[in-house]
Amino acid sequence: MTSQELQRGTAVEIVTIGDELLLGFTVDSNAAHLARALASLGMHVVRRATVGDTATAIQRAVAEALERSGAVITTGGLGPTSDDLTKQSIAELFGRRMELDEEHFRWMEERWLKRFNRPLPAANKQQAMMPVGATKLQNNHGSAPGVWLEDERGRWVAMLPGVPREMRGMLADSLLPRLASRVATGTVVRSRTLRTTGISESLLADKIGSMDGGPLGVELAYLPSITGVDLRLTVRDAPERDAMGTIARAASRLRDRAGQWIYGEDDADLAAVVLEMCRSRGLTIGVAESCTGGLLGARLTAIPGSSDAVLGGVIAYHNDVKRETLGVSDATLAAHGAVSDEVVREMAAGARRVTGANVGLAITGIAGPSGGTPEKPVGTVWLAVDIDGEVTTQLHHLWGDRAEIRERAAQYTLDQLRVRLLANQSAPAVRGASVSVAR
Fold this sequence. Notes:
Layout: H1 3-8, E1 11-17, H2 19-22, H3 29-39, E2 44-51, H4 55-69, E3 71-75, H5 86-93, E4 98-100, H6 102-116, E5 129-131, E6 135-137, E7 146-150, E8 156-160, H7 164-182, E9 188-196, H8 201-209, E10 219-225, E11 228-238, H9 240-258, E12 262-265, H10 270-281, E13 285-289, H11 295-301, E14 310-315, H12 319-324, H13 330-336, H14 341-355, E15 359-365, E16 380-387, E17 390-397, H15 402-423, E18 433-434
Parallel strand pairs: 1-2, 1-3, 3-8, 13-14, 13-15, 17-18
Antiparallel strand pairs: 4-5, 6-7, 7-8, 9-11, 9-12, 10-11, 15-16, 16-17
Helix pairs in contact: 3-7, 4-5, 10-15
């Protein structure tokens, strides 16, 4: 961290607490949410740490963070059980004893009796214990209050619950307003993410690196995943208007170079993008899936309101279902095999016919780990998009384990439809365009 960050009070560290985080049983979504929220105030998360449910580990992590930045936010360890040690541990670090907040304890008793019609368990009394001299952070979403503890040097620790719903509510209700009044920087940290699919990280970097006009003037991070590469643009320590203007200009330049692969921004879901495109054109969708086993249909129907565009689907895992339900012919299966251009075409047509949709989407392939052959190895996947009888197909040679191959297959099918709709394609059916996806 820079001396400027320390002087302005914009540097902060996050310590998330819990054995379940260290052991990997729970994904730490709290730290990511905190970092984004703090950036809106112009604050910089300069370090994140995760520790287990022991007093020694908590005290050491918080003490080291206070020495570096003077500002720490913790999540977790405010519950009623014996492994909830955050308040006591940090109170000892500050040389404070614990005392009962009588008002909060009475509120907890009344709340418990009203909700459960029985007395408050004795263990819950621990949640009403507060370090002497601490400020209570109101929790409007649960029973455990948060804690603000500050020493004579102005160093502070804000303790929030670990339950994500409670943490996020308390952050918005109590902590962010307090921090905003302390850190009046006049600057912000702003980010925008452009989401791409169907192009590898290295090829995308080559295209962006060769852009005319020099550097973008912003931080650019490449964030690859199973389904694509996100491009995150970030501007730090700038006034709001300047930050957003700079990001908008950088995003426009990226779209000029990578626009055909960009399907949305920030948290955009490709399935939602495709559904909106279909709605705007009055199109409906039917799905036929073999190796993905319903994953494509699940992606589409996970979007609220999808029933106005998605009519239904068929999981045609066995060849009998391909024949009897989708109408794939015996001759086609015998001549070309289930994983082929010819079969995926008939599956897509069958999806349209069975559901009555304008658009038929179909997937057939070998997701592994077994079932591959020298001619059709694991990862061989055929996709088809049939729009009112005009069909395009793609052959993909995907990599990864079974789950990754299935997820990529669903994503690429959605993208094939997106590209078709963008092009407003009206040409005759295209025979089996072969696509090899680079790693």
